[in-house]
Amino acid sequence: MRDETGTYRPTALPRRPALDDAAMQAAARAHHDAMASRHSVRDFSDRPVPRAVIETAIATAGRAPSGANQQPWHFVAISDPAMKAKIRAAAEEEERVFYGGGAPDEWIAALEPIGTGASKPHLEVAPWLIVVFGQRWGTREDGSRYKHYYVPESVGLSTGFLIGALHLSGLSVLTHTPSPMKFLTDLCRRPVAEKPVMILAVGHPAADATVPAAARIKKPLEEILTVISENMETT
Questions:
Q1: Residue 235: per-residue pLDDT
Q2: Which end of the chain is more exposed for a tag (fewer CB within 10 A), N or C?
Q3: 188 and 109 in contact (C-beta within 8 Å)?
Q4: Biased composition, Basic and acidic residues: where in the chain (predicted)?
Q5: What's CA 33's distance to the chain center, in Å?
Q6: Is 2 a residue whose pLDDT tops 80?
Q7: Does residue 89 contact residue 161 with C-beta atoms inside 8 Å?
């Protein structure tokens, strides 16, 4: 999306209720606790998920910030069993190469505690697959191209919004990044301007779903946060 006028036009910030400090902390804690229950699962139920839920979550993803507000993303939501079967077959072909010697030993060792392998049944069992594409350039009405900026960063932000929205809707999500992914461009019939980034398998977890114990180990706050404030002593 692009404002063809090229003119900066300010508009009022949409209003929302103001929170005091205590309410802000309570809201931050509530969101933290909700997201702390998020885990990637590989065992899905075939329980249907309404299309409206998927559409609303993707609409939320579309609210993410992006470089120059160019919104360089596109999402293909797939529930058709035949299409899911094609994606699984193509993905597993790539995965067999990956696990059969195509990936460095160090990478395979890093994946070992997660328990992944070449078999990807979730790509058929999960009621929805969402294929995320990054748009490398846009097209004007006259057919000419214009460059998109910060595409990986923008698409990453949008995908994070999407995963959060799906989780808060009661669904589980598994990210999958087969390599190479060009088969997704072909199967989803997307233009050459778009590059596939990942597949999200989306649905309810199976009743006996498990998660790798290693995946529940998260870095503590002190390892992921540095605070620089005006009251800090400096040396």
A1: 45
A2: C
A3: no
A4: 30-43
A5: 20
A6: no
A7: no
Beta bridge partners of 194: 135
> What confidence tens digit (pLDDT) does each residue in 197-235 have?
999 999 999 999 999 999 999 999 999 999 998 876 654
C-alpha to C-alpha distances, 45 to 38, 85, 137, 156, 203, nearest whole angstrom: 16, 16, 38, 27, 7
Q: What is the pTM of this model?
A: 0.93
Domain ranges of the chain: 39-208
Which two tokens mark 184? 């997704």
Q: How far is CA 148 from CA 32, 79, 98, 174, 189, in A?
A: 33, 30, 31, 28, 21
Contact 189, 200 (CB under 8 A): no
Question: Which CATH class, in words, describes the domain spanning 39-208?
Answer: alpha beta
Residue 157: helix, strand or coil by DSSP?
A: helix
**CA–CA distances in Å: residue 122 to residues 90, 133, 146:** 14, 20, 38
Phi/psi at 232 (nearest 5 deg)? Answer: -75, 145
Sign of CA dihedral 169, 71, 197, 188: positive
CA–CA dist 208, 31 (Å, integer) = 26
